[in-house]
Amino acid sequence: MSATWPRRPRLVAGNWKMHLTPADGAALAREFVALRAADPAAATSAVALCPPFTALSAVAEAVRGSGVFVGAQNMHAELKGAFTGEISGPMLASLGCRFVILGHSERRHVMGETDAMVAAKLRSALRDGLTPIVCVGELLAEREGNKTEEVLVRQIAAAYAGLDAATAKTTVIAYEPVWAIGTGKVASPEQARDAHRVVRATLDQVVGGGTGSDVAILYGGSVNAGNAATLFLEDDIDGALVGGAALEAAGFWKIAAAAAVAR
Ligand code: 13P
């Protein structure tokens, strides 16, 4: 993935959440890089490792020159200021981050992030030269109440209203149904496909200019080495945002390799 953003790049991102020290993170990154280097034919999907802030430097150093990207899990919308405990986009960029995950369900539902905060962060990430991975997804009660489409439309509209199509196409969206995160209950390929189609249709309404068909949409929620290939057979699924299964190099490599061969 170079300066020119390809249409709908294949991307697998590992969200390490609050796991691993700098030393352990660097060791995992080195192990992953070695597996990827040993199998160049399968190394055509883009990969981003997203460790905690404290391990970003060590992981960036471990992947240097390998073609594997580094991303952060959150950022503050402001450039700097009196925001104790927060990290700005330029700080992340200075550590070698290419990506930043925004609006993860754990940020929305545990830390109280609102649609408006996610929208502000999206604009700031673009300002700061980071590629945002914008997370959307419904709670179990919302799915059971047939509200999935309504939730996705609301979250996407709030985040993308006012962005131009060329800019919106350089972002990445992750559909992560909250009921599938960390539960072992992966969405079926059909459920994921249908949700991704809702996201694409909403982008066409809100942004226009062919954004819906050109933006990369990842699926996240209990993706592992055993179920990834089936998900990637769906044309509307461009990759994965992986939690638990990203904490083990061999399994995460299988997921990244599956994304590469699926298209
Ligand atoms: P799991 O893969 O552990 O379900 O986590 C998904 C996730 O939240 C990735 O951002």
The biggest beta sheet reads: 8 strands, parallel, barrel
Write out the distinct hetero groups bound to the structure: 1,3-dihydroxyacetonephosphate
Q: Could you name the ranges where pLDDT drops below 50 across 5 or more consecutive residues?
A: none
CA-atom Rg in angstroms: 17 Å
Domain module count: 1
Helix percent band: 40-55%
The number of helical runs is: 12
Span between termini: 16 Å
- CATH class assignment: Alpha Beta
CATH topology: TIM Barrel
The count of strands amounts to: 8
Notes on the structure:
- The chain has one domain: Aldolase class I (TIM Barrel, Alpha-Beta Barrel), CATH 3.20.20.70.
- With 263 residues, it is of the alpha/beta class.
- It has helices spanning 22-37, 56-63, 89-94, 105-109, 115-127, 140-144, 148-160, 165-168, 189-206, 211-214, 228-232, 249-261, and strands at 11-15, 46-50, 69-72, 99-102, 131-136, 172-175, 216-220, 239-242.
- 48% of the residues are buried.
- The model has no long low-confidence stretch (mean pLDDT 96).
- α1 (22-37) packs across α12 and α5 (115-127) packs across α7 (148-160).
- An eight-stranded parallel β-barrel has the order 1-2-3-4-5-6-7-8, surrounded by five helices.
- It contains twelve helices and eight strands.
- β2 (46-50), α2 (56-63) and β3 (69-72) form a beta-alpha-beta unit.
- The chain is globular.
